[in-house]
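Much of what follows relies on a compact textual record of a protein's fold. Each token is a code from a learned vocabulary of local backbone shapes. The record below shows the convention in full.
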Amino acid sequence: MLVAGLVVLPIVAIVWLAVSGGVADWPHLFENVIPRATGRTLQLIALTGLVTAITGVSTAWLVASCEFPLRRALAAALVLPLAIPAYLAAYAFGEVFTFTGPLQTAVRALFGFKTSRDYWFPDIRSMGGAVLVLSSVLYPYIYLACRSMFLMQGRAAADVARTLGASPLRVFLTVQIPMARPAIMVGLTLVAMETLNDIGAVEFLGVQTLTFSIFDTWLNRGSLAGAAQIACIMLVFVVALMAIERAARRRQRFTSNKTTTAVNDSIRLKLSGWRKWGATLACLLPVLFGFAVPLLVLGSSALRRLDDFASERLLSALGNSLFVAGMAALITVLIGFLLAYATRTTHSRPIAMAARVSAMGYGVPGTVLAIGVLFPLAAIDNGLDGLMRQYAGFSTGLLLTGTGFAIVYAASVRFLTMAEGTVEAGFQKLSPHLDMAARTLGRTGTQALFSVLVPLMRPATLSAALLVFIETLKELSATIMLRPFNFNTLATLVYEDASRAKIEDASVPAVIIVLAGLIPVILVSRSLDKRRTGKSV
């Protein structure tokens, strides 16, 4: 219950701040900010969802149901864009599409144009550019969900439909798509949450969403209450998305066995002629846009700035990032283990409810969470400082908001779901009879926990810690608003340089973030490959 209270505290603080902040900012917000920002947010979510759904579903169906050149390699490579944060992709695409970038330079050289007035070229700093960037790095959420569905439940039904004379296209549209609808909805919900959370990409590309409006209202207009009032509107979006995701998960059903999988692999549809190369190209393009282009742009710039790897500025940001990410990983794994173990051993409804409430943090955008974290922590700082001044005669300063504690708290609240879910999945693989066997051999509950369960759970806890560590390392939206003065992480360092149009200076920390992000992506790809070959459940 304490953990659930700490997760809910920022949300309660936002609502309280919005209600008690007065109505002085309402005329400006409701006339100039909220209608425009809400419309653009809805448009961005809808268009990004549409493009990611088309990309994710089509590529998942191709690698799961068809045989074509490079299929196995592309099936693993299609996950790689998850290693690229959206803000890094935006900076890279900005370099590619700019007037002096390779694309426009090639157009001018090919057609003999001299200035930008001589030809039309799409502007990357637009709604269309934001959709392109976000879709390029977010489609794997839908790809992963749909690929699993097509390889399991959807594939068996598809084989039956084919034996009844249905064409592959008809099977895809009338059998596999309807069966994959819950998985598609889960993936779309995750895409919408990530789109709602993004601030670096939309700010760089000039799209004023609700997330950016919170940032702008707080830091540029100096109105924390106005930012909280916009945040309450975003919470409505979050609640709706979480309700949709939960409803979709309840409708998911999976059935699979080794015999069915082996038969399905043997009768995968073999494409020929232009179709097989078209399928290869269709699966290759998302990897190029979502991973290869950002990595090549940032990597080539980083190679020209090798001296920056030893700069004091970068080393300081790297140290701060490792500290914040390490603390968040440690806290979330310990709390996640506590929640999962309590749920496993007690079967208590209040504990199950508390665990469910503790999972709310992931859906809250970082900018919203930052406001909710800052308000109570600042109150504690000020109260403690006042007491110490009155009774001890000295000032404590800002112990919580003046250090990295606020960032660690926000990251722990947001990524606790990830740690708890990973640990819970590990517990589900352990038979409950292990606990009972240890107790019958004379072990107490505590002894059984530390001598039996903890060693067996080591892989799951390490995986949970790694996932939280990497996600905190990449986190920008909350960090940029909660960091103290002269406190940079790798993400904020990239953001500062990119904001000053110094993309090459930002390339070195950006490459470190991408390389770190590749670790969990590679683990996911290996896990999928093992499931396909039947080496793990």
The chain is about 75% helix and 0% strand.
